[in-house]
Amino acid sequence: MITFFEATLAELSIHRIGNKLQDEFYVLSENSMHIQDEMLNQLLLQYFLSPYEKVNEIYRFMHPNNDLNLNEVYHFAAEIFDNGTVFHDNSKKLATYLYEISNHPKIKSGELYIAYFENVQIEGDLHDAIGIFKSETKESYLKVYPEQNGFGLSYEQEAINISKLDKGCLIFNTDKEEGFKVAVIDQTNRSAEAVYWKDEFLKLKIRNDNYNQTQNVLGVYKSFVTEKLDDDFEISKTDKIDLLNRSMKYFKEKESFDIDEFANEVIANKEGIESFKSYKKSYEEEFDTPIADTFDISNAAVKKQAKAFKSILKLDKNFHIYIHGNKDLIEKGFDDDKVMNYYKVFFKEEE
Q1: Could you tell me the pTM of the whole model?
Q2: Higher pLDDT, 103 or 214
């Protein structure tokens, strides 16, 4: 969990980054800024840090050659933490490096903010942090002001909405040898061009903690039920939904995960258990992401994954049936006269 109740913004550098592929340029500031206006300072803290209150995933810097110093962002950040007087010079190096990799035609130009924060809390501890933020989306705002006999109205174009941070990362001055603790925001992370931020610019790997173990095993199990089971077994959609519901019940009620206990309680079928364990092993090998057989369950990860576990049976475009409990209270059949499938649902009371 990340909070900023005690945080202060010590120094800020602003640069502008264009799209290199589009022959746009970059503009570097000559000096950094020390914000004196208290209202502006609070607005900047809200803009830069408030999105991280809902972030649970923590990353580490990495490099394919396993030498962290070859990761440019890690290298520049480490220099800043070691010697604060090089903050602005290294902010310019970060801006130049980002420009060099901004070579996808859909990458938007925008302002790049490099900020140095003191006393940002992560997982219960206070640390200094370096923030790297990019503002790409501009909006228009109306301004109403009093004037003689009433009010006047004007507008401002190309303004920044402080409630919408496009891209950002917070690098915490802790766990340096492991690649620091890094939290990431990317509002365009579903777009193909957006991988440049996390994968090419920052070069991050997920930290393998209880949150990510919980999230990974739930994700693997969901894929197993929805995609793999049909290859090995004849299974109805209601049985799939029941398997998903039972897995979510397990994770909500238990404090720790044990793969054998989970398999026996949720899957409860010898061939199905073997298939799931094999599927999990293949996932670990393909994505180089080991998932422990036992770990403490993260409630935050369960809550997030629960949104993706759909218990809805969709019937043509006419009906949706939500199945939350006993699957034996719904039966599937076929009507010869209408030549159509049907479901029979049993219940005691109508609410």
Answers
A1: 0.74
A2: 214
